[in-house]
Amino acid sequence: MSVSVFEARGVTKVYDMGEVQVHALRGVDMDVYAGELMVLLGPSGSGKSTLLNILGGLDTASGGSVRYGDLDLTRASDKQLTQYRRHHVGFVFQFYNLIPSLTAKENVAAVTEIAREPMRPEEALELVGLKDRMHHFPSQLSGGQQQRVAIARAIAKRPSVLLCDEPTGALDWETGVVVLEAIETVNRELGTATAVITHNADIARMAGRVVHMSNGNVSSVEVNADRRSPKEIHW
Amino acid sequence: MRALDIKLFRDLWGMKGQAFAIAMVIAGGTATYILASSTLDSLTTTQATLYREDLFADVFSSLKRAPESVRSRIAEITGVQSVETRIAVPATIDLPSYDQPVSALVLSLPDNGPAVLNRLRLRSGRMPEDGREREAVISDGFALAHKLRPGAALTATIYGRRQTLHITGIVASTEFIYQLQPGSIIPDFKGYAILWMNEDPVETAYNMTGAFNQVAVRLDRGAVEKDVILRMDEILQPYGGLGAYGRPDQVSHKYLSEEFKQLTTMATIFPAIFLSVGAFLLNVVCSRLMATQRGQIAILKAFGYTTPAIAVHFLKLTLIIVVIGNLIGIAAGAWMGRGMSNMYMEFYRFPKLEYVLRGHVVVVSVVINAIAASIGTVYAVIRAASESPAQAMQPQAPGNFRMTILERLGAARHLSQPTRMILRNLERRPLKALLSIIGVALSGAILVMGGFWGDAVDYMLTFQFKQAQRDDLMVVFNDAVSPRALGSLTGIPGVTYAEPFRSVAVRLRVGHKTYRTSIQGLEDGGQLRRLLNTSGDVVSLPEHGLLLTDYLARILHVRPGDMVQVEVMEGRRGVYPVPLAAVASEYIGVSAYMRRDALNRLLREGGSMSGAYLAADMTEDQRIFARLKEMPMVAATTSRRRLLESFYETMARQMLTFAFFNTILAATIAVGVIYNTARIAFSERSRELASLRVLGYTRGEISYILLGELAVIVFLAIPLGCWLGWQLCKLAAGTPNDLFRIPMVIEPGTYAFSALMVLGAATLSGLMVRRKLDHLDLVEVLKTRE
């Protein structure tokens, strides 16, 4: 096995909702390895989004540890987390969250301007097949195209890890496939460790490793010997 | 309670900060309106009550001397209800505690029983007892200014006779709410006193036994004042009548009503501005608030609620805020209004206060605010409800953006992405940006208006009392005398220079327009009293003809070259046509001028003078005053320094107090407007900003995007606010009146103050929003669908 990008050990997350406590994560142990494409699979409420948010530095764990290199994300300050997000991690959401006032290229540039050794925005857009659309504003792009801009924006900083939360959740099958292909391309060509959250078991077939989650815990991990390209997947 | 109503209260609670800010803006506007209207209503009501209760006369006249029998002839004039006659004698007073000269008017009290007209209100002590020759009651204004109480004694020189008088009481008179020396343009409570004494001693002192020199009448309802005045003038003419006049020319009443007029302007303009700024803001805020409720509106529609039902639901939300704002505003306005009315009552020494808060004032304020809020709300709800529920429940499609003009011109190639976001956001919805700019600019403008009054008053006083009038002392004689008397003035040690003047009471007439004033005959090339034009240059007196202030020329509708009929009201009376030769500028009072020699010729008299302007070494003032007091021909002495003080104590204080209250309320509104602008921008943009945080932008960097937009708005708003402020001041300065014309002068400091306040409010709001940015919940914001 190759090197771990993340090492999560005994991660717990408790949400205090007034009188009730919700245990979203109940001691998760998990690794993400360099260059792999993994899928976190589980029903809604299983804790996969919470885990991804903690890995991405958007949220902090209540207990346990999450190591990213020398950095312990559970003990990092807000400033450290900002720097971490800025230079090491790329995010893709279900609802693309593009900046509507910036064109595709400028949305990517918004990241490359603050990153250390970014690729050029054009390069990133080419990687997701949108070079000819780079001067379009989000309102002039389809949902799938917007999501691919979001992917380009996420990987333009050359992150060590790309985290995608239900990236095809708001898309139909055809466009969903194109988006997944973009993710796969990035993973393959840049070697970026990629974690994709989904509740769709079919999508898991493109992953090298599938982590099943349920009820705030990792229930099983399977290595996928028979990886399929997104085009071959139907749902 | 219905579920929807519960939702309503929860929503309201959820946005309590913003709701409170909006309520405060409404409260600010409402409070100003209530404050101004109720103060004015209270003052005018109280004034009317006092006039009625004290039997304030309708027509007045002074004359040289008439036998008491003339009284019944006046009483017989059709329309005259009652007549009162009396004797008025000028006097000077010595107060051990006050080193400045004090002039006085001594009036006789009716011999038999209480006065039929112009009744006095005894504030303390008692009236002089019958037969007591040395007892007097004094005007409350003077008593208050010198802290005199019944039992005190003062030395008075009445018609050259020095005597000690015992003050038995302090009285208030509707005739002397304002005390002005004859010929003076500024009320002076310290330097001018009114005394009332029994008729006998006054008759004796002034050689007036069985005669009178002042008369006042009260008219029947429906009587024609003009006819009565005409008839009285006919009767009194052989007795040296100086021309009868109605209340509008009665000095105290005139000053009071001019001042109320000024207050009315302020009480109309200020609240109108405040209410409209408040209403404007309310409208904008409500419509934006509704825009953020898009998803909820869709869900309600999906449940089967009709658009009107949804509109009503959200109307309840905004109207609750309106009601809360109004309640705070009405309570604060009534409280401040009562305080302010009390202050005015004290100032005018009205013996009682009738605080009036009219129902319609409250209703108007509530209705204006409610309409503004409703329009904003309903408009936004209808717009949101026009989308199909299914579509509205989807995430909102990204807005349409394009390159800004700057970028298309290629000028902005090197702008960072955040800067582009700022520019494009502003340019994408120019109307919204414009409304925000106008909102902030208006709050700056009302702040300019607050400082304007101080600037205008300072300019007015500098112009009048430093540039135009440069004398240290003005001496007025009992009668016109030969200029040889000047020698006795310049002979006083400490007096360095004297300039004679002649003053004569006239009625100016052009066509149907008349104006009672006096013509001041000044020395050609005089140094102590100069006439200036608006730019402050000296206007030389024409060799022949009349010079009027531009204000008076406008009242009479005359231009240089036109003829003015001058009706001389004293001495050898007569009507003379005199050409208007020039106009000059004056901000205070309404005067007419001629060269003294020309005036002497007009009056067919040798070179005579009514008084003199003196330049003096004022460190010697005590000795100068002492010498002047010894001169029987001197009726009054006024010092310029004292006039200035007096102006600040009287009129300036009124205006500045009003302006002060308004500045505070303006500041409240400014903060409210800017905070809301920032807060709404935050709501609208939180998703975008959260995305950037996820991408690794620091708090500072995302603050730049939001606060940068606010900064652009504020920086554009400041100059606009200054310009709007100038326009508002022009509006608020109002129409010129006889008391003073407010000059349009705004000092740079006032603009700077307004700009600083706006910047301060912006910084404060920025910090508050910045705190919100720091607590932005990234996960929550990005997961929700808008």
Report mean pLDDT of chain B, rounded to a whole number: 84
Q: What is the CA-atom radius of gyration of chain B, in angstroms?
A: 34 Å
Radius of gyration of chain A: 17 Å
Shape field of chain B = elongated
Placed side by side, the strands forming the largest sheet of chain B appear as: 3-4-9-6-8-7
Low confidence ranges of chain A: none
Q: What is the beta-strand fraction of chain A?
A: 25-35%
Q: Could you characterize what this model shows?
A:
The complex is a heterodimer of chains A (235) and B (786). Chain A has 235 residues and is of the alpha/beta class. Chain A is built from 6 helices and 10 strands, in the order βββαββαβαααβαβββ. In chain A, the strands form 2 sheets. A 6-stranded mixed sheet of chain A has the order 6-7-8-3-9-10, with helices on both faces. Chain A has a 4-stranded antiparallel sheet with strand order 2-1-4-5, with helices on one face. In chain A, helix 4 packs across helix 5. Chain B starts with a helix and ends with a helix.
Output the keywords.
heterodimer, A: 235 residues, alpha/beta, six-stranded mixed sheet, four-stranded antiparallel sheet, 6 helices, B: 786 residues, alpha+beta, six-stranded mixed β-barrel, 22 helices
Layout: helices, strands, pairs:
The complex is a heterodimer of chains A (about 240) and B (about 775).
Chain A: E1 4-17, E2 20-33, E3 37-41, H1 48-55, E4 63-68, E5 71-72, H2 78-87, E6 89-92, H3 104-112, H4 121-127, H5 143-155, E7 161-165, H6 173-190, E8 193-198, E9 209-214, E10 217-223
Parallel strand pairs in A: 3-8, 3-9, 6-7, 7-8
Antiparallel strand pairs in A: 1-2, 1-4, 4-5, 9-10
Chain B: H1 3-14, H2 16-53, E1 59-67, H3 70-75, E2 80-86, E3 88-94, E4 102-108, E5 120-125, E6 135-139, H4 140-146, E7 153-158, E8 161-173, E9 192-197, H5 199-206, E10 211-219, H6 225-236, E11 245-246, H7 251-291, H8 294-303, H9 307-348, H10 359-385, H11 389-393, H12 405-408, H13 417-428, H14 430-468, E12 473-481, H15 486-490, E13 495-510, E14 513-522, E15 546-549, H16 550-556, E16 563-568, E17 574-584, E18 592-595, H17 596-602, E19 609-616, H18 621-629, E20 634-639, H19 640-694, H20 699-733, H21 748-774, H22 778-783
Parallel strand pairs in B: 4-9, 6-8, 14-18, 15-17
Antiparallel strand pairs in B: 1-10, 1-11, 2-10, 3-4, 3-7, 5-8, 6-9, 7-8, 12-19, 12-20, 13-14, 13-16, 13-19, 15-18, 16-17
Helix pairs in contact in B: 1-9, 2-7, 2-9, 2-10, 2-19, 7-10, 7-14, 7-19, 7-20, 9-10, 13-20, 14-19, 14-20, 14-21, 19-20, 19-21, 20-21
